[in-house]
Amino acid sequence: MIRKRRTNRYTEVYAIGQYISMSAHKARRVIDQIRGRSYVETLMILELMPYRACYPILKLVYSAAANANHNMRFNKASLLISKAEVNEGNTVKKLKPRARGRGYPIQRPTCHINIVLKDLDVEKQYLYDYY
């Protein structure tokens, strides 16, 4: 069970990808490059990086932006990746058949990726109205 993080529900939206079949270490290598960047800049970075982890992360960023646009009416151009984290998931354990009837253990790691987007325009307006 994944606990939902406390976020400011007026200025932030998120997307969670669970049980993505790659190691958390390889996904963190890509996530560290996009944390704190704007949405448009993130798309360019992810499309040009040569790692296999970029595709599921790109899908999650698209999903979070679609959530922001549809649910909260945020403008995609003013979105910023405020939080991006990768946690380890379950390890899928299999046996691969080898010579003479033996089995060779295979371990496939999985990871959970959380991406939180923040709208800067709405946050400025929210803080202005609040104070």
From TrEMBL:
Alphabetical list of InterPro entries matching this protein: Ribosomal_uL22, Ribosomal_uL22_bac/chlpt-type, Ribosomal_uL22_bac/org-type, Ribosomal_uL22_CS, Ribosomal_uL22_sf
MF terms in GO: rRNA binding; structural constituent of ribosome
Subunit structure: Part of the 50S ribosomal subunit.
One GO biological process term: translation
Organism: Trema orientale (Charcoal tree)
Compartments reported by the entry: Plastid, Chloroplast
The protein's name in its UniProt record: Large ribosomal subunit protein uL22c
NCBIfam families named in the record: rplV_bact
CDD domains, sorted: Ribosomal_L22
Record keywords, A-Z: Chloroplast, Plastid, Ribonucleoprotein, Ribosomal protein, RNA-binding, rRNA-binding
Family: Belongs to the universal ribosomal protein uL22 family.
Keyword Protease attached: no
GO cellular component, one term: large ribosomal subunit
Main function: This protein binds specifically to 23S rRNA.
SUPFAM superfamilies reported for this sequence: Ribosomal protein L22
